[in-house]
Amino acid sequence: MTGLGLRFVRRPGPGGRAANLAALGATAVVSLLVTFLIAGSLGLVHRSDRIGWRSADKADPATAIGAINQDDDQLVDGLPMLRLDLATLRTNELPPPPGLDRTPRPGEVFVSPELAKRWSSLSKQYGVEQPTGVISDKGLSSPEELILIRGVAPSAVGEHPQYVASWRENVMDSRMVGLRIAVSFGIALVLFPLLSLVGQAAGVAAKRREHRLAALRLAGATRTQVLRLSAVEQAVLGLGGAVVGLIGYTVLTPLIARIPLGGGRWFVHDITVSWWNVLVVLAAVPVLSVISALIGLGRVSITPLGVVRGQTRKATSALRLGLLVIGPIVLAYYGMQAAVVPLLIGIGMAALAVRVIGPWAVQVIGKTLANLANGPVALLAGRRLADDPKGAFRPVAALVLSGFVTGFISVFMPGENEDPSYQDMRIGVALLLALVFLTVAASTAAGAVGTALDQAGPARALRRSGVPLSVIERSARLSAVVPVIGVGLPVVGFGALCGLALSGGKILTQGSSGAFLLLGQIVVGLVLVAVAGAAGAPVLRKASAN
């Protein structure tokens, strides 16, 4: 079966090449985003390892080897500068602070490279014509950091200094701690749109693959052989997409390093993928793709005759609605003062509820649309939604889940403030939304191709029976728009409800940024669906012509 699976990849048959390219592209985006999330999280750790010692303050003053006093009120050329006064309290042979070749003696001044370029405006203030030395990358938060480390006498370190037992204490920088918590929430919010993209990549032209494998089952292939054949085919596409995604991330790394999050731009080596990062992506992405593909082919392995006959799928249950209450209850119970893990569980349960309930909602909308139809367009669209709600929801799942994300975030949008933490929040929200909408765009594009190929068989039969092509195309567009409006808009409200549950019923957004975000979500969603419909129309027209 391995050889046959590879043959299906090389010669996929009518429409198969477009399906494989769509799946490969979607998987590549998954790989790129997973790599970004892993490398970015590790970048925060690398940055904190270099500057965490500045926050150390746990040593006993009676035994401390040194003291630190920080001053971040000074400006240089309109930019904030950090000054650290270091005093050696006891003679020691311990390593100097990161980035320095020795511990500063009283009167010595070490500066960052960017501050060295501006030293002419500071030389008179600090009484030295030139700095004693330049801090290397190993002691800097970012390439553009403006920092001055000055050696002072113990009596000049200030009234309430930070006492340290070592110049290289393993302490997590407070700003990095906040960012890591924010990143955890961001990953939880983007996880389900990302998993939906994985499912979409594996489900491109799902019906075409179902019919092909069902024919093999009816010809005598065992269930295990069919599943193995599908696994081989999807693993090859998943591995190819993972490689493309890793290459794409490597190419984009210099641009990603320019994101000014957490105190400035990044050193490229902070966010460069490591060898184990590459191995994780090359293993995880194909495995997730294979699992998603096998889950979607359960019906083939059990009822191949039903697939060939086009038998209607079993209706989804309304009991799924009970899942909607779990996430908000968890978030409301713990509130914003809780530990990170319970809140992540609450967000995850809420997003999972949306993903599980989505097909049921599509089925209800489809039946309603078909019953109220006063023409062939609405009737065809309604019957498709009602007969295959999972297949209809899959292409728009990431878009619907992005509505949950924007609804949730709209409650917490930060306002204009010069505080660094607010700046990090604004950049973080923009970055999160960029990741989500990239996921949505890739999923929508793959879904456009997959949906067109899935509808090719019924569309061909309709054309042979005399139904105009324009009616078929309009019904396809309607069946794509209805789930977005009928399910997506309520999900935006559900996301906002979860945000209010977490905040205790308070809208923490300042100004009208939350309203603009919600409006942007609606506009982007409709535009993506319209573009996807326009892109899928030629594929449907060609695939249903023969």
Automatic annotation (TrEMBL):
<keyword id="KW-0472">Membrane</keyword>
<feature type="transmembrane region" description="Helical">
    <location>
        <begin position="235"/>
        <end position="256"/>
    </location>
</feature>
<feature type="transmembrane region" description="Helical">
    <location>
        <begin position="342"/>
        <end position="362"/>
    </location>
</feature>
<feature type="transmembrane region" description="Helical">
    <location>
        <begin position="21"/>
        <end position="45"/>
    </location>
</feature>
<dbReference type="Pfam" id="PF02687">
    <property type="entry name" value="FtsX"/>
</dbReference>
<feature type="transmembrane region" description="Helical">
    <location>
        <begin position="276"/>
        <end position="297"/>
    </location>
</feature>
<feature type="transmembrane region" description="Helical">
    <location>
        <begin position="318"/>
        <end position="336"/>
    </location>
</feature>
<feature type="transmembrane region" description="Helical">
    <location>
        <begin position="427"/>
        <end position="453"/>
    </location>
</feature>
<protein>
    <submittedName>
        <fullName>FtsX-like permease family protein</fullName>
    </submittedName>
</protein>
<feature type="domain" description="ABC3 transporter permease C-terminal">
    <location>
        <begin position="187"/>
        <end position="301"/>
    </location>
</feature>
<keyword id="KW-1003">Cell membrane</keyword>
<dbReference type="InterPro" id="IPR003838">
    <property type="entry name" value="ABC3_permease_C"/>
</dbReference>
<feature type="transmembrane region" description="Helical">
    <location>
        <begin position="392"/>
        <end position="415"/>
    </location>
</feature>
<feature type="transmembrane region" description="Helical">
    <location>
        <begin position="514"/>
        <end position="540"/>
    </location>
</feature>
<keyword id="KW-0812">Transmembrane</keyword>
<dbReference type="GO" id="GO:0005886">
    <property type="term" value="C:plasma membrane"/>
</dbReference>
<keyword id="KW-1133">Transmembrane helix</keyword>
<feature type="transmembrane region" description="Helical">
    <location>
        <begin position="480"/>
        <end position="502"/>
    </location>
</feature>
<feature type="transmembrane region" description="Helical">
    <location>
        <begin position="177"/>
        <end position="199"/>
    </location>
</feature>
